[in-house]
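Quick illustration, no need to memorize.
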Amino acid sequence: MSGPRGSEPLFDVWLTREAAEDVKALLGAQARAVKQARAELQRIGCRAAHYRLSGAGVEHLCVLRLRDNFRMVLLFPAEDEVTVLLVGPHERENPDLDVYRRLYEALGVEVPDDDHRRPACCEDGHPPVDPGLLERLIDRTKELTQQRRRARPSGT
């Protein structure tokens, strides 16, 4: 954390390539909601998040609810660092668009049943830091991308 209150951001917030692509596709109110959420994350870190996911493989990730059914999935590689992993709609009726399905696929974990808990993101004012999770997620995403490329018919 840096700088006196009100000057520069206290938390470093950055987007993964996937999250940057998600945000780039947003327009209007959703784009403004993301901008506002990023500013809140820079100012108050994990306290801006609404809840932490529960279940094996996702217990160190938090979610910030945006407008309507949109969610921002967060990871904390360090106490003063916030990584935005994905941004998108929570669409139970359309699993291909659902931000949680995308997350679980990227992590290689099973989708939890509907009876999951949503504990607070911050415990005693501290985020659920997992410095190795980002690297594992990036490796898994690269692996999935390579599998998809190999599965494509030639000429596409």
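The mean pLDDT is 84.
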